[in-house]
Design the sequence.
């Protein structure tokens, strides 16, 4: 049973589960798509945007047009089982795992009892899915990090981690888009850009998309931009 | 005619370009950003005849100063009670003034308020990102930070000295006795009964940890009912998040879009502009309202705000326009 919780005067949080599972997240994506189809087809009014997360969807509405009860009733009427759930896309991301751009690769290797190359092979073997965007612009959280390299966060965040860093923690992976402090482990670097540089470009990923990491050498990394 | 520009002589931290904000990208990890005090930003634009959502310079308490270059231009400074001066002469807060080339405009922290908006009659030529100039302060994405030496072009600059003078401020934004209305939740059920009781009865003070992302509060520790980690959930502007140390933070214009800490309450949107104008040390009391009461409050506030904009500001501007058309006063500003 979904839990509906009011969020201030202009949003409603729909929690579909209390713990993350791939299945719960697929239901989140299906509900998000169903709500957006209803918006596009003008079957609901006043919804401004929706935010799919791990196990919940936030529905932001215009309180001058509608309210929590009306939005909740409209969403309860939606059929999320039928209707085309958008086909996920598959994206290839070229990553350089050279120790010079992967400052935490050796520490992850020590933690997981693997060699640095073993960590890279484990990372390349994962089946990654975009679970949600969150926290900061273009931060796409990927599930699917293999268990052997499921490392915890560091005790303290490290400052100045550059954009394009491939970082892992707690069974998740993401590609940083801006220079930020992070407590996640930096295991590689990519030129892949999730965030659009210009106004009208689309974002690289959609929730539900599949990501495949491909290994490149430092020379290959330096030869491209 | 010379190219008009506004040259940044000096600017402290957290002085940024802001249009009305970039809605619709929470799903991409991007908060709307935009002005901390949305009402003051809109007033600064509307008194000059600009679209309400146009780009302004948001000046923090760190202050900023500018030089008018190339041609005369009328500007508005609206928001907190900042010390505003032209060539060293104080002109008071919440003011419209016409600058001539060479004039120096200084906007500095005054008796109260945390943010002021500098709007220019015309259009600031600022790069857009995802359709907006609103600056996400953490990344600098959007129009960006305002820094010394920057020469900001002003397209279609207008000098309209008839508009010069004090600006009326919307009275509907003041917090009476520091009362800030909140809707409890969405994770209020994660807290102890005592924590919930404290949250709505004990005053909280704003701390120095106050930027565009949020403000940490000083008050009773708010204990969770059980140690737990919830999967990250979406956050909105006004979310009151309680970290593992029991300290509450109100998340503001550049808030992170998701977070795993429980949110005990959400500030009602109509109280947020006034909340943002408070200063470290100022005290607030959170008063819970039902979701239905919050909606009523927002609608009442919106109606009052609309009436204010229509009656006060547009009438003033139209009067000035009519005077200009009858040519009672010449183009004294075109220096």
Sequence:
């Amino acid at each position: 049973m979904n839990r509906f919780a009011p969020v201030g005067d202009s949003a409603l949080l729909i929690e579909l589960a209390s713990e993350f599972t791939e299945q719960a997240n697929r239901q989140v994506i299906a509900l998000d798509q169903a709500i957006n189809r209803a918006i596009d087809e003008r079957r609901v009014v006043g919804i401004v945007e929706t935010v799919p997360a791990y196990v919940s969807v936030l529905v932001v509405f215009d309180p001058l047009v509608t309210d929590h009860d009306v939005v909740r009733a409209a969403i309860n009427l939606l059929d999320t089982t039928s209707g085309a759930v958008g086909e996920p896309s598959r994206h290839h991301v070229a990553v350089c795992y050279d120790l010079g751009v992967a400052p935490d690769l050796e520490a992850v290797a020590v933690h997981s009892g693997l060699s640095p190359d073993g960590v890279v092979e484990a990372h390349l073997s994962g089946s990654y899915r975009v679970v949600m965007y969150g926290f900061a612009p273009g931060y796409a959280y990927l599930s699917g990090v293999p268990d052997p390299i499921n490392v915890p966060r560091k005790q303290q965040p490290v400052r100045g981690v550059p954009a394009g860093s491939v970082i892992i923690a707690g069974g998740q992976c993401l590609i940083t888009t801006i220079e930020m402090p992070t407590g996640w482990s930096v295991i590689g670097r990519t030129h892949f850009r999730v965030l659009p540089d210009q106004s009208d470009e689309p974002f690289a990923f959609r929730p539900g998309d599949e990501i495949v990491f491909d290994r490149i050498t430092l020379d290959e990394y330096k030869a491209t931009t | 005619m010379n190219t008009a520009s506004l040259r940044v002589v000096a600017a402290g931290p957290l002085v940024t370009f802001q249009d009305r904000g970039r809605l619709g990208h929470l799903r991409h990890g991007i908060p709307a950003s935009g002005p901390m005090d949305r009402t003051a930003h809109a007033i600064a634009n509307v008194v000059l005849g600009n679209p309400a959502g146009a780009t302004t310079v948001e000046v923090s308490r760190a202050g900023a100063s500018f030089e008018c270059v190339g041609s005369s231009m009328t500007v508005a400074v609206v928001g907190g009670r900042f010390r505003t001066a032209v060539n060293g002469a104080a002109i008071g807060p919440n003011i419209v003034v016409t600058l001539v080339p060479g004039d120096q405009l200084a906007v500095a922290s005054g008796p109260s308020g945390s943010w002021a908006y500098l709007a220019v009659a015309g259009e600031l030529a600022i790069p857009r990102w995802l359709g907006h100039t609103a600056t996400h302060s953490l990344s600098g994405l959007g129009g960006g930070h305002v820094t010394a030496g920057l020469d900001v072009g002003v397209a279609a600059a207008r000098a309209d000295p008839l508009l010069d003078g004090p600006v009326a401020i919307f009275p509907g934004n003041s917090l009476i006795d520091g009362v800030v209305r909140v809707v409890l939740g969405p994770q209020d059920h994660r807290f102890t009964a005592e924590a919930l009781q404290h949250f709505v009865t004990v005053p909280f003070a704003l701390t120095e940890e106050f930027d565009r992302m949020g403000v940490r509060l000083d008050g009773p520790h708010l204990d969770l009912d059980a140690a737990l980690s919830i999967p990250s959930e979406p956050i909105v502007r006004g979310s009151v998040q309680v970290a593992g140390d029991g300290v509450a933070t109100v998340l503001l214009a550049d808030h992170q879009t998701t977070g795993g800490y429980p949110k005990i309450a959400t500030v009602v949107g109509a109280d947020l502009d006034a909340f943002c104008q408070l200063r470290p040390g100022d005290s607030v009391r959170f008063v819970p309202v039902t979701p239905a009461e919050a909606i009523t409050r927002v609608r009442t506030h919106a109606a009052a705000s609309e009436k204010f904009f229509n009656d006060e500001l547009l009438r003033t501007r139209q009067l000035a326009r009519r005077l200009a058309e009858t040519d009672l006063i010449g183009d004294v500003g075109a220096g």
